[in-house]
Write a structure and sequence with these properties.
about 475 residues; alpha/beta; five-stranded parallel sheet; binds adenosine-5'-diphosphate; binds magnesium ion
């Protein structure tokens, strides 16, 4: 039996001498040694993405370090071991601070009926340093997350019209504002509001058939149905809904066959006065390569945007989350967070969860001093000048082992395409540049390519906490460069 555990810290020390610190933190710290019966040197990776990337880019460095350490040619083998307890504190923090995925696929029974709603974390006691246990929320059969309800939605000046329209629709589906089209930036509550409509209709009218899908899911469902000769079932399923909620419809841009099918679904539902709700990061006019007939239908009902919340609303959102979770955090800490995260509520929650996770893992009381210690790097870059696309490219190229020129090139190997998508997404999230500007910076690509890249990376981040951790480390690095 090989007890790799015992040698691992020293092998890592050898690696540490050879690779940049950032690479070491991102790619070597998350590995864990396995003990093996047959003498193999097995190393666990947190997921498949990580393993593929590591084996192509960093396995040689690990083998070389092993060879130096053992004094003979050494080959490690990799395997995916997702459940293993991590020893790296940063990892723990990242896992605990990840807001839950927007739609949770595997419902987990809720042990406490009055469990606090929404924020995706749960504290066992009322003390600020109580154990933080991220608890996935149960998901209803229609794919709705019950935490996304109207009670949990804090209304501010940027969301009052959208909220009023949403509640009107929930009380009287199909009779006003059809379709309702909600657009606005990432993390501002579009999915929450849309699902709140579904949850409220389900509460008031349990017999209604309600379906929440992302536009991407709709497309995949369509493709699957064509592949399996199930298109009649597909059509029937969507066309027999009483309420259809389609999230992120900008994804349909450029996907002609999906637009065609969606057009017919839309018409069938609309003609029967069934409620349709759509969200997007852009208004219908801004979604290029959307067929005119679909665009005009999106404009038939009410189009409303949601805007970033002001300081008072951000404080109110934080306070609501603190209240429902029975945690005590002083007003000055709340203000400190609200003042530093201005543009994205998901990030606001992320800051709070990060703080709670830190308090929980270290057993310390939450104070302003601790908040600034834990969150200053998280906030960095928000108070300084804008991030440039060049900074993003530089950090992505360092972390993912590609060159900046390759990111801008037309080459499309799998790794390069992946790195480019990550960079495009970070540019979109962090620089304030438009899709067109980002497309131009990455070798004159079309804005729909950038939009697709952003959605793909966001979806993968939602599904895979480790990947999210990798992307967030890059974000922190970009901010630190400012
Ligand atoms: P979007 O779909 O616009 O990207 P989400 O609906 O996923 O954003 O919102 C991101 C997170 O912020 C969710 O956890 C959501 O519950 C929370 N959130 C957004 N807006 C509000 C609000 N006005 N009040 C309370 N929580 C909110
Ligand atoms: Mg959303």
């Amino acid at each position: 039996m090989t007890n790799l555990d015992a040698y691992w810290p020293e092998i890592l020390d050898v690696v540490r001498q050879k690779v940049p610190q950032q690479t070491f933190n991102t790619w070597f710290l998350p590995l864990f040694p396995e003990n093996s019966e047959n003498g193999d040197l097995k190393v666990g990776c947190p997921n498949h993405f990580f393993m593929d990337w590591f084996s192509e880019h960093h396995l040689t460095a690990l083998n070389e370090a092993g060879s130096v350490y053992f004094g003979k040619n050494t080959l490690f083998c990799l395997k995916v071991e997702e459940k293993k307890e991590q020893t790296n504190f940063l990892d723990k923090l990242n896992e605990n601070t990840d807001p839950k995925p927007e739609t949770q696929q595997d419902p987990v029974p809720d042990p406490k009926p009055n469990r606090p709603l929404n924020p995706g974390f749960n504290t066992a006691e009322t003390s600020p340093s109580a154990q933080v246990i991220p608890t996935p929320s149960p998901v209803t059969p229609n794919n709705l997350n019950p935490d996304y309800n109207f009670q949990n939605f804090v209304v501010g000046s940027g969301t009052d019209l959208a909220f009023a329209a949403a509640t009107a629709i929930a009380n009287n589906p199909g009779s006003h504002f059809n379709p309702l089209f909600v657009h606005g930036g990432t993390g501002l509550g579009k999915t929450h509001l849309m699902q709140a409509i579904g949850n409220e209709i389900a509460r008031q009218r349990p017999d209604r058939r309600i379906c929440y899908v992302t536009a991407e899911h709709f497309m995949n469902d369509l493709i699957g149905s064509i592949r399996d000769n199930r298109t009649p079932e597909f059509k029937l399923k969507y066309r027999s809904m009483d309420v259809l909620l389609v999230d992120d419809v900008a994804f349909l841009a450029g996907k002609e066959s999906t637009q065609e099918e969606f057009f017919h679904t839309f018409n069938a539902l609309y003609d029967q006065k069934k409620q349709i709700v759509l969200t997007s990061d852009r208004s219908p006019k801004e979604i290029a390569t959307l067929e005119e007939r679909l665009r005009s239908r999106f404009e038939w009902g009410l189009i409303t945007d949601i805007q970033a919340p002001n300081l008072e609303t951000r404080i109110a959102i934080l306070k609501r989350k603190i209240e429902v979770n029975h945690i005590y955090i002083t007003d000055e800490v709340v203000s400190y967070i609200a003042e530093n995260v201005t543009d994205n509520i998901r990030r606001l929650e992320g800051a709070l969860i990060r703080l709670l996770a830190f308090a929980s893992l270290t057993g310390r009381e939450i104070s302003l001093e601790m908040a600034s210690e834990v969150l200053s790097s998280f906030f960095q870059g928000h108070s300084t000048g804008p991030v440039k696309i060049a900074n993003v490219m530089e950090v992505v190229s360092e972390t993912m082992d590609v060159t900046v020129d390759q990111l801008k090139s037309k080459r499309r190997t799998q790794d390069l395409a992946r790195a480019r998508q990550i960079a495009m997404n970070l540019a979109r999230e962090m620089t304030g540049a438009s899709l067109n500007q980002i497309g131009r910076a990455f070798g004159n690509r079309d804005h729909s390519t950038v939009s697709y890249a952003c959605q793909k990376i966001q979806a993968d981040m939602d599904k895979d906490p480790r990947f999210r951790g990798v992307v967030r480390n890059m974000m922190d690095k970009i901010r630190n460069q400012q």
